[in-house]
Amino acid sequence: MPQSRAKHDDAIRFGALISRLRLARGWSLVELASRSGMNDTYLGVMERGGNMPTLATLFKLAEVFGMEAAELVREIEQERREAGSTPR
Question: What is the DSSP-derived secondary structure letter of residue 53?
Fold first, then answer.
């Protein structure tokens, strides 16, 4: 998926969440890529908010982190509320 030029607030939030989860486990981007079957460059761009993940990516990352996809979405929703964000 090509990198988006304009960063969306939710993509930035999602990327920060994935980065926090990865670092909490002591994983490098290469290790997360290996565990998820995704490209480490793509994951790095996503962690910086450069790409909006697909549903397939959301489900795969939730599986890798041992979570439900709804937990990831719930955390993003909470961050949106705290920031007073509205959907674009």
Answer: P
